[in-house]
Structures are given as C-alpha cells and as structure tokens.
Amino acid sequence: MAVPGIPTVRETGSLQKMKRGGRSWDWRGWKFMLPFALVFIFVFIVPIVYAIWISFYQKRMVGGTVFVGLANYIRLMQDAQFWDSVRRVALFTVVQVPIMLFLAAAMALALDSMKLHGSRFFRISTFLPYAVPAVVSTLIWGFVYGAKYGLVGSINNVFGSDLNVLAPSVLLAAIGNIVTWEFTGYNMLIFYSSLSTIPHSLYEAASIDGASEWQIVRRIKLPELRGSLAITVIFSIIGSFQLFNEPSILQNMVPGNSVTTYYTPNMYAYNLSFSGNQSNYAAALAIVMAIITMSIAYVVQLRSMREQMK
Amino acid sequence: MSEMNREATTSMPMTNGRAATNTTARRSTTNRRARARQTAHDERLERRRAGKSGFSNPANPRRSMMLTLICGLFVAYCLFPFVYLLVNATKTQADFTSTFGLGFGHGFALWDNLQTVFTYQDGIFGRWLVNTLLYVVVGAGGATLLAIMGGYALAKFRFPGRNAVFVVVIGAISVPGIALAVPQFLLFAKLGLTNTPWAMIIPSLISPFGLYLMWIFSDQAVPTELLEAARVDGAGEFRTFWQVSLPLLAPGIVTTSLFTIVATWNNYFLPLIMLKDSSWYPLTIGLNQWKDQASTAGGQAIQNLVITGSLVTIIPLVIAFLLLQRYWQSGLAAGAVKE
C-alpha cells in the first residue's frame, strides 16, 4: 500500500515526528483526498478559470467572439443596474443577518438554560423549516402574502383593511421574512451545539461563587458563542449576497414588475446569460461579486474561523 | 443525547443511594427506560426542593412558564407555514381562492388532491419524484462518500498541500453560485452533459460544508493511537479506514448525509439552468413550473396541486429529520465545537 521510497509510520514513529523531521513527505493522505479533489477541480476550479477567461471576451454581431481586455469590467463599473442590485443585497445583509442571528442566539440561550417546558419539542420545531426547500417555503409564504387569494387577502376581507406586503416598498422585508424563517433554526442549532459543550461544573462553580444567572450568561455563555458566531456570520453573509431563489420564485406572484430582472446580482447575472445571451458580461459580473463577497467574508471573520480550525 | 447525560449527572448527587442500588442490581437494557423515569422523578423532587429553599441549581434550574410562552411565540412562527400548507392541501381550487386562508374549505379534498397530483399531466409528478430520488441517492450519496474520505484525510494525515486544500475549499464556498453556474453550464454544454441527469449529479458531488463537518468529526472521533495500532498490526490504509475508522464515524456520517440530502433535494438553481426537458426535472423545478402555469396566458390555475405537491415534497425530509434527530444533533454538536 505504501508509496515506494516513503518510510512507513513504523520506521519513523508518530506523524508529528515525521512532519518535524522534514526528511520526507507523507503522501498517504492523498489516497483519501484525491477523489474529492478531482471532482472539486472539475466542478469548481475549471469553471472559475473558464469564467475568468471568457470575461475578457465579447460576442459581437459582426466578427464573432473578440478579445476586449477589461471592457466588460469597465462597463460593469458604470452599470447603474448592477450597483442597484448590489446596494439591495447589501441593505438586505445589514438588516436581515443581525435580526436572524439575534433570534437564533436568543433561542439557543433559552434552550440551553433548561428552563423551558418541553425543550425537545422546541428544538426540533424551530429547526424544521431548514428541511423545507426554498421553492416550497417561498411558495407557501407567497400564497400567504397574496392580497387576492392569500391569507393577507382573507385578512383584508375580514377586517376591510388594505394590507399589501408585496408592495415595492416592503417587498424586501417580505423576502427577509422568508429567509429568516428558513434559516433561524439552522443557526440556532449551531449556537446551541456550542453552548451544550460547556462543562456544567463551570456553572456550579460560578453559582457557588455567587454568580447570578445573567452573569453566567454574560461571562460564560456569550464568550462561548463567539466562536460559532464566526461561522454563522460568514455563511449568512455569503448566503444573502447570493440571494436568488426567493425573489425569482416570487417574481410572478408579485403584482406589477416590482421584482426586476436586476433585483439581486445573481438574478441579473442569470438573466444576462440565459435570456440576454451575454454570458461574457455575466461572467465578469459573477467574478466581481465573488471578489466582493470573499473580501467581506474575509474582513468580517474568516481570520478567526481559520484560527478555530487549526 | 447531551441533555440526557447532563440530566443524569446533575441528579446523581441527590439520589446516590437509590441510583447506586439500581445500577448494580439491574443492568439490562430494558431498565434504561426505568432509570430515565427515575432521573425525571428525582429532577422534579430537586426542583421542588430548590423552589422551597430559594436556591436554584443553575445546572438544573426551575422551569419558567414565562420563558416557555415567549419562545412558544417563535415556535408558532416556525410552525405556522406548515399548518397553512396542511390546511390548504385539503381544499379544492375553488375553496382555495374563496375561503379563509387558515380555515378549512367546504369539503375535505386532500385525497382527491393527492390523486390529482400524481395523475395530472400523465403522472409527471411521479417522474419528478423518481428523478429527485435518483439525484439524492447518487449525488448526495457520492457527496457524502467524498466528504468522509476527504475529511478523514485532512484530520488524520499531514500531507503536502493540506493547507492549500483548506484555503481553496473555504474560498470556494464564498464564490456565488451563479459565478459557477454560468461557466459550469457552458462547460457541461460543450461536453454534451446538459439536459442529462449527470448535469445535476456531478456538481452535487461536492459539499464543502460536508467536508468541513467530516474533518472536524474525524479529528474528534478517531484516535490516532488506534490507527497506529492497526498499522502496526499490518493493516493497509484502506483496510484501517473501512474497519477501524468508519464505524467510529457513523454519527458524523448520518449528519453529513442528512445535510447533503437536504442540499440536493432542495436544489433549485442548478436544475433550473441545466435541465430544459421537463422529464428530467426534480420536484422543486416541477412545482415552480406548475405555479407559473397560473400566470401564463390561458393557463389553468392549479394552486391546490402546487400546495399538495409541496406537502408531498417536504414530508420525506421532515420524517427523516424527526427520526434521525439524535444523530444529526450530536453530529452537529461535534461540528460546531472545534476548539
């Protein structure tokens, strides 16, 4: 099994020693890493490189595909629709992510306090929305929101009110509600898992020392949450910058044209490449968005996440 | 799981006498339930005693009705769409548009709706269900296997390029789906793979989150000494992996497969761009197409079928999550707590 020329563990001792010795490389891990790596290269690396490549070209009516250098990127920088969509997801991120994570952390603390009646029921029912596909949750909420035949419509009939949660001014909040519903439980569970690893002797010691419950929460539990906060913040930011499913499914459930073809960057790129036949421009857009997302994620907390993983 | 342990340990000191005789006298598995009942009983006593003395044990506090009610509001918010879905799946199309959203219709049409869902358009919904199962079994199954092996490699071997793998995978998570999907589509189109099941399956094989979970899990669940012992006994790397490591990884594997299954079952974007032929659609795209039918000119509105179809779509996953609770909770706990 061992690769020729590479000493086995028996000859060199523990793994640590081998690494420190630095005489030879331990290639055995690649036997297990290789399948993932190969598929990963095929579905991630090659498409990314390909996207970078085509973003320097343009399809022309005359002359076919020509190399245009940075022209696509320059056009993107001046594209008001693109920046409009970026502003929209940025606003969405700044408002929705804190609300969702606050709810998730509060619920996790409540569950962990063991003060709830029936905590198993609480845990499973708050997590359940995660099992629902975005399509289905958007459909349900879309029907609920509907002013004609939906629940909002029924409420308007009964009370004679004129609510419309799909009006352009509140549409983004309506979408935020769907996303919050889908992912709060998931984040709650990550928080809850990290809380449940705190040794309980710590609480007992604290209470013997006369700490109140709020002090235990503030001094023991909240610091423990910080580690998992890094992961949840990054995944949430990435998720909301990629917002696509909810607005695009809502598109024809919303009266009028409130959900434009450039409502979010992802929708803009999708419409550019699949109905506008501008894949080169869409590729440039996708790359710029990737860079924006990655730098925000990095600035926010990637560093702490890396430390955590070492 | 963790809660059970916690409750068991916290109530121990109060009940040493009885608990000790219990454990020594009867060890059979059937008595585990009796012991849990005993623990619950002791807990109640402890809570009452704590209530009288005014001193509350923070590791086993008194339950609060107030907090339960406040959290109950949030649970109501989480469960309300499920109720809406269930109620409206029992209505006919006419009742759906005319009766109150959270009240029942004039008749009970659930069975009719279910039957229509599976027979409408020559039973194409059944085809979508089979497609989804295919994508889940091959795609999510493969993704889990690759994640197990990769995570195990990252946790238990210090191979050259290990750090690079980490950086690249984390970087890849933050690449927007569309950045990949457009060139993936163009690439797959060149290879003649679009509009075939492969276009759906191959990209589903990679789950960076699954890799992360299995990495953390292997790190904690598989002791390095055990691996070295197996190697000293002359077992090859793959044999060690199958016979020593895999059994230890079981809870993590259940967790990872649940997450890859959810990701594949719920995927909307990938099939949306890759598949044009409705006979290869998964459930998500199919449902959306039925929903769109109402807004096309002359299209028949079939919201009752969309609602009932949605219910059918989520039931398998909801059941899986309920049955496998213990596994994914402990698995996720391991994933979230890497120090």
TrEMBL record, chain A:
InterPro entries per UniProt: MetI-like, MetI-like_sf, UgpAE/MalFG_permease
Domain ABC transmembrane type-1: 86-300
PROSITE patterns per record: ABC_TM1
GO BP terms in the entry: transmembrane transport
Membrane topology listed for this record: Multi-pass membrane protein
Compartments it resides in: Cell membrane
Primary location class: membrane
Regions that span the bilayer: 32-54, 89-109, 121-145, 225-244, 281-300
Source organism, top-level taxon: Bacteria
GO cellular component term, pick one: plasma membrane
Pfam families, alphabetized: BPD_transp_1
Ranges in a coiled coil: none
Alphabetical keyword list: Cell membrane, Membrane, Transmembrane, Transmembrane helix, Transport
Family statement: Belongs to the binding-protein-dependent transport system permease family.
Name of protein: ABC transporter permease
Automatic annotation (TrEMBL), chain B:
Biased composition (Basic residues): 29-38
Keywords, alphabetical: Cell membrane, Membrane, Transmembrane, Transmembrane helix, Transport
SUPFAM superfamilies: MetI-like
Composition bias type Basic and acidic residues, residue spans: 39-48
GO process annotations (BP): transmembrane transport
Location within or outside the cell: Cell membrane
Residue ranges, compositional bias (Low complexity): 15-28
Membrane topology: Multi-pass membrane protein
Region (Disordered): 1-57
GO cellular component, one term: plasma membrane
One Pfam assignment: BPD_transp_1
Transmembrane stretches, start-end: 66-87, 133-155, 164-186, 198-217, 248-270, 301-324
The ABC transmembrane type-1 domain, residue ranges: 129-324
Family: Belongs to the binding-protein-dependent transport system permease family.
PANTHER family to which the protein is assigned, alphabetical: ABC TRANSPORTER PERMEASE PROTEIN MG189-RELATED, ABC TRANSPORTER PERMEASE PROTEIN MG189-RELATED-RELATED
Protein name: ABC transporter permease
Organism from which the protein derives: Bifidobacterium aquikefiri
